[in-house]
Amino acid sequence: QQPVQSPQAVILREGEDAVINCSSSKALYSVHWYRQKHGEAPVFLMILLKGGEQKGHEKISASFNEKKQQSSLYLTASQLSYSGTYFCGTELNFGNEKLTFGTGTRLTIIP
Amino acid sequence: EPEVTQTPSHQVTQMGQEVILRCVPISNHLYFYWYRQILGQKVEFLVSFYNNEISEKSEIFDDQFSVERPDGSNFTLKIRSTKLEDSAMYFCASRADRISYEQYFGPGTRLTVT
Hints:
Strand content of chain B: over 45%
Mean pLDDT of chain B: 94
Distance between the termini of chain B: 37 Å
Structural class of chain B: mainly beta
Oligomer: heterodimer
Number of helices of chain A: 0
Largest interface: A-B, 23 and 22 residues
Largest sheet of chain A: 6 strands, mixed
Largest sheet of chain B: 7 strands, mixed
Number of strands of chain B: 11
Helix content of chain B: under 10%
Strand content of chain A: over 45%
């Protein structure tokens, strides 16, 4: 069963913050976050392993709430380059080898 | 910087024809994947491949699909008898090893079945 992402789309002005959520009905081993720009391949942003750790990548960070089986991606002081579709990919077990992607969140940053 | 490459970038084929999509993963990577993305939709897992065998496959990956690593560099996806609904972007990805989580995606092959 695929993870559910929210919101489906968001429009921000440059410099504003955004939060993208990814929820699963199943217990997860990991959550992967990818960004895909129009017509391009997905690009890996970061991975969250079960344990509730938070990670950061420049002004993009993420957390994983193991109790809720939910991961959130935080984009602070958004830049034009952040525009794209963000996908979370979930993995049920270590070595499971199957990444199930959510439906994506389209982020548009306007000047 | 090493990257995954895919050929062709665009393939047009008639329904019922066989197609082979080719990928060259990053050198020394051990895990290989195929995904597809129907226009405007999410990325869907097809198959993972390690140590010259399939390690996991999705329900999409039926008998019409096969993968092969014919030599030390190429990784191919074959669709035996294409259907209209096979039209999609097909991405190949590779991963370095068991403890490295990042999957590096290729630029994709757009398959159009007419």
